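1st attempt posting a full record on here, be nice pls
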Amino acid sequence: MLPTPRRPGRRADPVVGLLDALADRPVNYDEAAAPPAVTVGWHQDRRVAVLGREAPGEPAADGVFARAVDLVNSYEFSDPAIVRAAYRSPGDLLGRAMVLEGRFLLLRLLMGVRVTDRHDELVEGPEGPERRVGWSYQTLDGHIEQGRLTYEVAKLLDTGRVEFRIIAHSRRAPIANPVLRLGFRVFGRHTQQRFYRNALRRLQVLVREPATAPRPGPDGIVRAPTGSRPGRFEAWTVRLVDAGATPGR
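the predicted structure (as tokens):
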């Protein structure tokens, strides 16, 4: 009996395969050798954008702050031309595994991260009390970078100003492919900073409109940002999974 030929387009989705593999994957760097304990060799970034204003006091239930938190939690702020994300829903934000798809020319780099911290706190800031809500992810084995990135929405309670903050430390992970290694050395930092700028601007626009809750596909996976479409040359792209250090090394 002849084997049944595989139908075109029925190949396993590498995003799903990688997402399933992330549950037991470790962080790809030694936290004791990272900021704040060690700063040499690390990029440290802090980017801030003002999203709008509310009345002074704790955030309103349906105001700028609440809309921004929802958008940040669902990864809607990301510029889809640079980074897209996939994660399972429903599920807790803390502990969430995500596959990030870095997009550069015809390359699609699939990399794993995990949300390892979540906060909702009232703190004393430089301009008075602040309500801060946010979360952090860390890079996992196979990622081309090493580090921690925090996304935070903050409201200054005395003035009502609402801000979006990106706080990160990062460095290049070992990359075996020499062409990719060279490309990251030349374009990586520029692309990273462009991602920060675009994310801040994108959220400034999105908070002006009612947020649409992302919907998972039939496989239970949310692909963010919502409404992202394939590029013109998507059929010719090359997907690289785990281009960083070998998982489990």
